[in-house]
Amino acid sequence: MDITIKSLDGADAGTVTLADDIFGLEPREDILQRMVRWQLAKRQQGTHQTLSRGEIARTGAKLYRQKGTGRARHGSARAPQFRGGGKAHGPTARSHAHDLPKKFRALALKHALSAKAKSGGLIVVDELKSDEAKTKATVKRFADLGLANALIIGGTELDDNFSRSARNIPHIDVLPVQGINVYDILRRQTLVLSKAAVEALEERFK
């Protein structure tokens, strides 16, 4: 698959051939759904917790005698039915993460890249560099490229001026190639890859 390389100023800067086994697959929604679910479950905190009746700081003495009062038979005041008692079947702190094979995760990333390429939401730029860290100038360059909602992936090292100028722009994410992931690719309308990122991805999936 051949695609035109753009410069950040919107001019053509040649062409690049993308590997069909990475960018030319037929996207499968079931694979992408499982991958996104794995990512969101892994980052879920799971720190919510309530106190059970065994953790309540309250007397465990019997409320009143068993017989002769005409009232129900109650024991501890820490029981869930009493105000100030423990919570029955409440949430406990735990990890929500589950396993997903490494090969499956790699396949899901290929399908996400292929989905963007197939839908026309993939742009390749020659390099991600700025002479100065000016957000206003970067906003104009993005407007010339038609980028309003995009994930931008650079090489292993990001240009400091470019990343600083882009980090305050709404709906724009900038990541090094090591941080590329399925969820961020799908949540943004356009995927922008630098030439270095394309080379790194093809090397990664060799």
Tags for this model:
alpha/beta, six-stranded mixed β-sheet, Ribosomal Protein L4, Chain: A
Summary, kept brief:
Helices cover 34% and strands 14% of the residues.
SSE map:
Layout: E1 2-6, E2 12-17, H1 20-23, H2 29-43, H3 102-119, E3 122-125, H4 135-145, E4 150-153, H5 160-166, E5 172-175, H6 182-187, E6 190-194, H7 195-204
Parallel strand pairs: 1-3, 3-6, 4-5, 4-6
Antiparallel strand pairs: 1-2
Helix pairs in contact: 4-5
Protein name: Large ribosomal subunit protein uL4
Family: Belongs to the universal ribosomal protein uL4 family.
Organism: Jiella pelagia
Describe this structure in words.
The chain is an alpha/beta fold and 206 residues long. The chain has two domains: 2-45 and 97-204, 3-Layer(aba) Sandwich (Ribosomal Protein L4, Chain: A); 50-90, no CATH class. The chain contains seven helices and six strands; from the N terminus they run E-E-H-H-H-E-H-E-H-E-H-E-H. It has helices spanning 20-23, 29-43, 102-119, 135-145, 160-166, 182-187, 195-204; strands at residues 2-6, 12-17, 122-125, 150-153, 172-175, 190-194. Strands 2-1-3-6-4-5 form a six-stranded mixed β-sheet. A hairpin with a 5-residue loop joins strand 1 and strand 2. Helix 4 (135-145) packs across helix 5 (160-166). The radius of gyration is 27 Å and the shape is elongated. The model has no long low-confidence stretch (mean pLDDT 93).
